[in-house]
Amino acid sequence: MTLVIAIDGPSGSGKSSVAKAVARDLHLAYLDTGAMYRAATWWCLHQGIDLTRTDDPEVASAVTAAVLALPLVMGVDPAAPAVHVDGIDVGADIRTDRISAAVSAVATNLDVRAELRRLQRAAIDAEREGGSFSGGAGIVAEGRDITTVVAPDADARVLLTASEEARLARRATELHGDAGAAAVEATRDLVVRRDADDSTVSTFHVAADGVVTVDSSDLDLDQTVEAVLTVIADATRPTVQPTAQPGA
Ligand SMILES: Nc1ncnc2c1ncn2[C@@H]1O[C@H](COP(=O)(O)OP(=O)(O)OP(=O)(O)O)[C@@H](O)[C@H]1O
Ligand SMILES: Nc1ccn([C@H]2C[C@H](O)[C@@H](COP(=O)(O)O)O2)c(=O)n1
């Protein structure tokens, strides 16, 4: 049986860490769709496009044209999810503040979204069809619109949330080594402003019908992974059909 697992959530909710752990546990492939938007942003900047001016239709068209020609190779091994653009390993560079600050300008372009959605569905289908990393076991895909738009037919769909306070503290700890007031303030734009911009094109704060919410505010990483694995087990448990009784 092939499993497709969809996980969405806001910045810092733990999607990437949890999705990777779940994929490793279930021997599935892993698709980081946020990394695809980040790679597209890296490519636009590499092409010299000024992403502070995407309100200008000419700049927006240049972004679309660049992404339609994006030479992207996404690794789907959860133990080593590499990202290459035009043969260059951009895995580290796409995590820098330079990309985090600019990515929403690319992710809110609807033509870009259509193209990346096409690539994401192709990656999911490749795992369903058995020709790729998981040998047909399946894939965990995470992002902002996987449960609703990219794979609404997934076998299990999870919205991973956490309070803004928890998400800011996690990101501050990751980037600055502590969650004191100064570190949290330095992180606010990369979490809160980005989520506000991204929410104009995707709904990832409220679960759609059939999507199960896991609130990780008071859970550690291992507990969150366990909670998501339980949702998957519940969603994929075979339903027992009552057998007809003789003479009934
Ligand atoms: N339940 C948790 N408890 C504590 N820390 C967590 C938890 N989940 C994730 N983290 C930590 O929070 C940080 C952010 O997690 P992660 O990068 O997985 O979030 P994300 O939702 O993918 O964010 P983004 O969308 O911005 O990429 C990481 O340092 C991770 O180790
Ligand atoms: N399915 C997705 C995935 C990501 N995005 C956007 C939103 C973020 O600003 C950006 C980077 O994502 P992250 O690596 O922080 O998860 O990509 C989106 O719009 N849709």
Automatic annotation (TrEMBL):
Coiled coil: none
EC number, UniProt record: 2.7.4.25
The entry's keywords: ATP-binding, Cytoplasm, Kinase, Nucleotide-binding, Transferase
Location within or outside the cell: Cytoplasm
Positions with a binding annotation for ATP: G9, P10, S11, G12, S13, G14, K15, S16, S17
Gene Ontology molecular function: ATP binding; CMP kinase activity; dCMP kinase activity
A GO BP entry: pyrimidine nucleotide metabolic process
GO cellular component: cytoplasm
Catalytically driven reaction(s): dCMP + ATP = dCDP + ADP; CMP + ATP = CDP + ADP
Domain Cytidylate kinase span(s) in chain numbering: 5-232
Main location (coarse class): cytoplasm
Domain of life where this protein originates: Bacteria
Family recorded in the similarity comment: Belongs to the cytidylate kinase family. Type 1 subfamily.
Protein name: Cytidylate kinase
Lineage of origin: Bacteria, Bacillati, Actinomycetota, Actinomycetes, Micrococcales
